[in-house]
Structure formats: C-alpha cells, structure tokens
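Severity: low
Component: inverse-folding endpoint
Summary: output formatting inconsistent between runs
Steps to reproduce: submit the following structure tokens with default settings.
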C-alpha cells in the first residue's frame, strides 16, 4: 500500500507559477512511475506529466515548455513546477503512483489549482 500526500495548490493569476509536491510513503518499490493528472468537473482525468524512477519524463502537449516535473527518489517525492499558468490549467490535480511490479495505481486526494484571468 502506498499513501500520497499532496501540497502546493492554490489560486494564481494567469502567467503566474505554482509548485505542486507529492510525497509517497508505505510500500515503495524500486521501479515506479510518479506523476500528476488533473480533472475538471464533468471531464475525465487527464495526464499532465509523469516521471519514472529512471528519470524518463512524459508531458501533456499543452503543458510542455511550461511545466517541469522532477523527483527525488531518496525522498519518494515528485514535484511539478508550473510556470506561465493559463486559465485552462484550472483543475484538481492528483498525484499518481504506478507500481511496476503490482500494476497498481495509487492516487492522492487532489489539490485545487485555480488560474484566474
């Protein structure tokens, strides 16, 4: 079992920045993927960015060149630095942990990001 604790959401004006952090605890495996997904009311959860334990990164096209994902394997933490935020980035952001060996997804409780015009 893995528990994920998120922090860093909030309200920011367009063009501003936020940093989301997620700390994983529990049964942490050596090989996993951590990342961030987001969801708005009435829509499906969508990938924002992921990073594997080996450092391979995948971004959603609309956030590429604006967001940066990184991780600290020793701390089991993933960070999403969000710059040049746009109103369309407004969503609840969920931390995700994918266990390679159990094929199990774990989710954080979600943190609200609101970008005003």
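Observed output (run 2 of 3):
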């Amino acid at each position: 079992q893995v528990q994920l604790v998120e922090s860093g959401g909030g309200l920011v004006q367009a063009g501003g920045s936020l940093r989301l952090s997620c700390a994983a605890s529990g049964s942490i495996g050596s090989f996993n993927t951590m990342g961030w997904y987001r969801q708005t009311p009435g829509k499906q959860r969508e990938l924002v960015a992921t990073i594997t334990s080996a450092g391979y990164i995948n971004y959603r096209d609309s956030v590429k060149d604006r967001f940066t994902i990184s991780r600290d394997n020793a701390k089991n933490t993933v960070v999403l630095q969000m710059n040049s935020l746009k109103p369309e980035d407004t969503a609840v952001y969920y931390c995700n942990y994918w266990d390679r060996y159990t094929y199990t997804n774990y989710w954080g409780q979600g943190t609200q990001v609101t970008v005003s015009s």
